[in-house]
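Look at a sample.

——
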Amino acid sequence: MLQSRGHAGAPPSQQPISSRSKHTISVVAPYRLDLTVSALRRLSTNIVDVLTSDGRYVRALAGSHGPVIARATQAGPEKLSVTIEGDARDHAPTLELVRRILGVDRDLTHFRRAAARMPWLRLLARRMRGVKPPRYPTLWEAFVNAIVFQQVSLQAASTIVRRLIVALGTPLESEGTPIFLFPSAESVLRTEDRVLRASGLSAAKIAALRLAGEALTRGTLTEGMLEERASPEAAVLLRQIKGIGPWTATVILLRGLGRLDVFPMNDTSIARNLALISGDVQVDVARTLAALSPQQGMLYFHLLLARLEARGEVGRASSPSP
């Protein structure tokens, strides 16, 4: 049963779930759910994208008729088993969101073949074989994560996002698993700056979040506008929002729209992660990206996983919510 856990900022307690459905979805092999979820959530302290100790991915999503819980498990090399709980009218769109989040349809043959020709990347690509490019369920969630992660460490940004979710998200529980519904743009827009600052957000990031939220809620920027544009033009459109620079726009395109033909340059963590896996080998980044094109965005996810692997975070069960 899907239940509210009585958060002070949450809406009135949700009614018991009206329906449960089970689905089997095909995936483009090779596929590994644990790697894909690790790339999606970054750290195990993520309380929205939950990986359980038995390898289930659990996520609460905002349906048109109330919260919906989706659970996914790897049922075989080429299929996932997905259970959806919530109003029956929300099951079909939720299943499509799960497919989007977990990148089940992405064929990465070009990246794998190109990476295999690079000695410094080959072993990492082999260890991470099966990771798919995850994608946030909404453009708003992509904005929040990209803005919060600007120019701060992985640990610091993850802590800020967690505090923001605890303060404004809706706490739920399903089959003993605590989980939060990601806060909406509307909830952030109506929250006072002092509350947002308490999560660790700077004044500049609060302003950028507000401008992004206003653009999305008013419809002056939509996912459709970005989808109909090539990545360079979509990035220009994103950068019209004050506080969205080249790096942030690229991360939004990569993590929010699933664009693999982009790569976040001028990122100090990228340089550190490259050094981590290449050792003494001098990597010509421009030539590497050209060889991996048009799927160079997968290098970002592999570098992230290399860093998480070094921290023991890949596949680690999620930490309990506060």
Observations:
- The longest strand covers residues 66-76.
